[in-house]
Amino acid sequence: MTESAIVIPMRPHVTSVADVRAVVRATAEGDLETKMKLEKVSVFYKDFVAVKDVELAFYANKITAIIGPSGCGKSTLLRALNRMNDLIPGARIKGRVLLDGEDIYAPHVDVVEVRRRVGMVFQRPNPFPKSIYDNVAYGPRLYGHLKRTELDAIVEHSLRRAALWDEVKDKLGQSGMALSGGQQQRLCIARAIAVEPEVILMDEPCSALDPVATLKIEELMRQLAKEYTIIIVTHNMQQAARVSDYTAFLMTDEYGAGTLVEYGETKQVFTNPKDRRTEDYITGRFG
Amino acid sequence: MSEFNGGKELSVLPRAGKLRLKRSAIRERFRRVNNAFMLGLTGLTTVVGIVPLVWILLSVFAHGAEVISIRFLTDTFKPTSLGGGGILHALVGTGILIALASLFSVPLGVLAALYVARNPNTSLGLAVRFGTGVLSGLPSVVVGLFIYTLWVSGHGYSALAGGMALAILMLPVIVRTTEEMLRLVPKSLREASLALGAPEWKTALKVWLPAAMTGVITGLMLAVARVAGETAPLLFTALGSNNLSTALDKPIASLPLTLFKYAVDPSKLRNAQAWAIALIIVMLVLLLNVSARLIATWRSKMY
Predict the structure, then answer these.
(1) Residue B127 above 80 pLDDT?
(2) What does the pLDDT look like over B83-116, one tens digit per residue?
(3) Residue A36, domain member (yes or no)
(4) Is A108 exposed, middle or buried (0-12, 13-18, 19+ CB in 10 A)?
(5) Which of A65, A99, B24, B203 is deepest in the core (most CB within 10 A)?
(6) Per-residue exposure over B9-23, b if at least 16 CB sit within 10 Å of its own CB, e if not
(7) What is the CATH number of the domain that holds B102?
């Protein structure tokens, strides 16, 4: 199969001065490029503060895990990164969410464009009740008319990268819902990467899967991190420790608002946490 | 209350002594008799409830079956002196009326249902829900009168007017069932589409509605079944006709109107034909309901 055949003009360009500066700064700090950045981000549901004043940077081609006890705002925070919270009536956000230095909540920004660049994989596998092929082709088809051969190439490429091609190549016409749970989730990953996003958000992608399927998805995430920035919310601390490069630990404050307790390299957070609460959570003293 | 609590109580009971246990055995028997009685009663009322349906089916079959023949279905109106002819004009008329009514009500109803399912708690959403409830309870003759004053008084009796009247009767059924089916589609499906960068309207048309499609078709069938036998709204809209007509701006025949006319006709032959038409309408409604059921079961197996 030819990789060069797939050209989808979706990659962003480093245009603004802020972008260039960010890249320069990042390079100065080491080899890390900041892909997304949260600046004093708070998310509200009507009057309730779900997430409060979170400052975080997600690095390109790294896997960042967001961990924390139930109801601490992990998913809310994740959904703020591709503006999925816009769909919830009464949800508001304060602060800035930067993607390549650009605020995705700025008034002129097209939310559709944001979601194309920041893809998402959900907690429960949610393939469309369409064929496997149509599931993967759904996204590319949204962005203009592609020739059948081009579409075929995108579908194959995406399924290969999602490590599903060999299992489904002979039954692309079958319903995506007929696959096993783990295969469905990989199909959803293939569907997400078919539109060539830059960031992939994963909201507890393995919580509905058995251990073998979970392991497969985790291996896949390591592969995908070479090309994408991955941000994963997980309940499973072993998973965070296994797959992620960076870990953010969130907890609710006394008012029920999720706040960032600790953020750092995964190794450091798990072996030598700076905050007492992180240590308590990781060692299973609560949560 | 957990099982644990239940277990605790049970272990306490025997300590109350033999007398208490004996009495509870009597109570147990009373309960059993009571249960059998109530079960029998509810069973009986259920049977009584379906008696009218069975009775109607049987009598319509008994009276109508012998009249129905290929000629009866393919011949148009003829005077009784020439054998009375058939009901092709009424079949075609009903077909046209239902097609027109579906054409008007389906796009309107499905789009309205999309709005209500998307914004269930907005004031417009609530108003539409309340409105469809009222509309579905409206006597069909009132709808006929409404179209009469609105359209027929200016443009005359026509198939078009009949289609409009039936469309108004179908609308609430379509909105209701479509909305319910749309709400059954998991929200995560819509989110998946939106997360791929699809705008909401594309998500609605390409993912949401297709996922609910079998339900929408079921709703359409039930709506058609609801209006297939309507007579009152057609009296002052489609009027009825003895000619085989496909013109939309002319009065048109229909099965229920022809049934009505033949039933009150002094001729015995016409009365017999009326039974045959009744049988055809009943079979049509039955067929629509059964296929709606089948589609619904098939759909539920898909998920």
Answers:
(1) yes
(2) 889 999 999 999 999 999 999 999 999 999 999 9
(3) yes
(4) exposed
(5) A65
(6) eeeeeeeeeeeeeee
(7) 1.10.3720.10
Beta-carbon contacts below 8 Å between A and B:
66
Distance from CA of B253 to the nearest CA of A (A): 42
pLDDT tens, residue by residue, B248-283: 999 999 999 999 999 999 999 999 999 999 999 999
Separation CA B68–CA B275 (nearest Å): 9
Q: A42 near A93, Cβ under 8 Å?
A: yes
Q: For A180-196, what is the HEC assignment?
A: CHHHHHHHHHHHHHCCC
CB hemisphere CA count around A116 (13 angstroms): 20
What's the gap in Å between the CA of A163 and the closest CA on chain B?
20
Rounded distance, CA A233 to CA A248, Å? Answer: 10
pLDDT at A199 over 60: yes
CB contact under 8 A, B193 and A143: no
Domain, as residue range, for A35: 13-282
Judging by beta carbons within 10 Å of its beta carbon (0-12, 13-18, 19+), is residue B80 exposed, middle or buried?
middle
How far, in Å, CA of B282 to CA of B165, rounded? 21
Supply B123's token pair. 């004031």
The residues near B13 (Cβ < 8 Å, ≥ 6 apart) are B20
Contacts (Cβ under 8 Å, ≥6 apart) of B86: B71, B72, B73, B74, B75, B76, B77, B78
Confidence of residue A3 (pLDDT cuts 50, 70, 90): very low
Q: CA nearest A177 in B: which residue? A: B303
* Set of chain A residues whose Cβ sits within 8 Å of the Cβ of B193: 128, 138
Which structural domain range is residue B32 located in? 3-64
The number of domains in chain B is 2
Tell me how far apart the alpha carbons of residues B282 and B288 are, in angstroms, rounded to a whole number. 10
